[in-house]
Amino acid sequence: MPSRAFRPGPVGPAPGALLLCRSEPGSVAPAAQLLRERMVLAPSGGEWSVLVPEGRPWLHGEEPVDRVLTGWATALAVAAPWPVLALWWDADRAGYTLASGFRRPVGYVWLANGTPAGEDEAMGTFAARLGLDPVLDLQSLERLTRPDPDADARARLRGLLAVLTRVGVALPAGLAPGEPAGRLRELARVRPDALPIEPGGRRDIVRAGLDVVEDSPLGPWLPRTGSPGSRALALAQVTVGLPLAAWGVRRHSGGWITAGALLVAHGALGLAYGLAVPRD
Fold this sequence. Notes:
Layout lengths: L15 E6 L3 H9 L5 E5 L5 E5 L2 H4 L5 H15 L4 E6 L3 E7 L6 E6 L9 H10 L5 H8 L9 H12 L16 H9 L5 E3 L4 H14 L12 H23 L3 H23 L4
């Protein structure tokens, strides 16, 4: 829908975002470092973690928060064995993007006043990929796609999070949809269980990439023996990642550039894995 149709509303003028990963912080930290962005990582329920980004791409650049978060979620999801849910908002809209492996991301958008602006079938795909109840939970999600004059975009995201409590999501106190990125980051930083994620050097990125590859579903395909299967998969990652990164460059999308670059990096790591790790 064209941006001129959107009107600022109760979500507030400052954009913000959260990345929910279905894994413990110890597994999320190496993958998050590959994004090369300053973030704060904290537990967000029994088997979930939350990444609170600093927000430089949308606060100090021209790229909208939803495009950045979609690229980041996609990059994390192809790098790790767990799904990634991006929640985002700005003065005009709010929404989510769920990325899982190499599957096409699914998402939904609400205007600032809460008017649904997404595709209804997205909620069904969303519920199925997260293992939500196909009847009760899906009914709750579908209510978020119907007109409600008393629910703005911020309330819609709170409703989404209420459903996600049934799969263990529990955001830390204060990390609420609609808050600006700076306030979210400050609230996350003071938590005793918070872990800062800082952009590392090239050596740190390579080490993090090897850790992520080894723990991911691709790990069995990247064996110490350097089998033909592992080389074929690594080559496929490079083949997919290069045009994705090029598409991001044409669209001036840092998020999609990151996703493509991460695929290329993983492919390159896969090709070099047999040399970097001694064989059994």
